[in-house]
Amino acid sequence: MAFSSIAFVAADSEAANAALGRLQSRYPHVQPDQADVIVALGGDGLMLETLHRHIGRGVPIYGMNRGTVGFLMNAYREHALVERLDRAQAVTLHPLNMQARMADGSTVEARAINEVSLLRETRQAAKLRIRVDGKVRLDELICDGILIATPAGSTAYNLSAHGPIIPLGAGILALTPISAFRPRRWRGALLPHTAKVVFEVLEADKRPVSAVADYTEAREVVEVEVREDRSIGLTLLFDPEHNLEERILAEQFLP
Fold first, then answer.
1. Buried b / exposed e across 225-235, counting CB within 10 Å, b at 16+?
2. How many domains does the chain have?
3. 239 and 221: one domain?
4. Residue span of the structural domain in which 68 resides
């Protein structure tokens, strides 16, 4: 694919800003809202921030790692950037949509590219009821929390919570408990991407719970609905030799 206008954005770090200055002096560039491709310099946090900021525009994002983890980023190289962009392979992600209702009756709606997580707010464990497509699947889960992850997010918080890694094209979401106490043997579930999941917070006054969609947080929630939003497609670009599908596959064989 060929691009006519490039924009650069950078994380708030010395390494990222130094790279930004060098690349802007080397390549013609425009403002992000005028570009047909955005090059993001930083780590996965900046990539998520950039995707959220330009959600709905359809502009592809090509990341180069100037951060720490960089799972969603390509290797940083300053030379032949235009050629790399022309050769890049596109991956389309669909975000999760979270609708959270709080104890005071107010609501928060947010999107998540990685995961939506429910987390206990105090020393006491959370008590949750889980409904999938209107049917109660788990009447009571006592835990530190629970999350529902996209395939792209399955290697992030979900993996740390011992959830499964999911290939991008699988059409599956991961439902993963965080430190489940009862039922102790429940390890989560794999759900079709069409599923509507509702979490009901039990004993919400005594055991308050927060809900987080990537970096949007709602406190003292009583009910949270999560479903994939197929109307929105987010495009990431990867070098052919190190694409996201390969990274997700390789992650499953790490020692």
1. bbbbeeebebb
2. 2
3. no
4. 6-94+233-251
Residues 55-87: tens digit of each pLDDT = 988 899 999 999 887 788 999 999 999 999 999
According to DSSP, the β-strands at 6-10 and 37-42 are parallel
Assigned domain for 1 exists: no
Q: What is the pLDDT of residues 131-190, one digit of tens each?
A: 999 999 999 999 999 999 999 899 899 999 999 999 877 899 999 999 999 998 899 999
DSSP 67-125: SS--TT-BPP--TTHHHHHHHPEEEEE--EEEEEEETTS-EEEEEESSEEEEEE-SSSP
Domain membership flag for residue 32: yes
The one catalytic residue among 44, 133, 205, 214: 44
pTM > 0.90 = no
What length does the chain have? 255
44 is an active site residue: yes
Same structural domain for residues 189 and 239? Answer: no
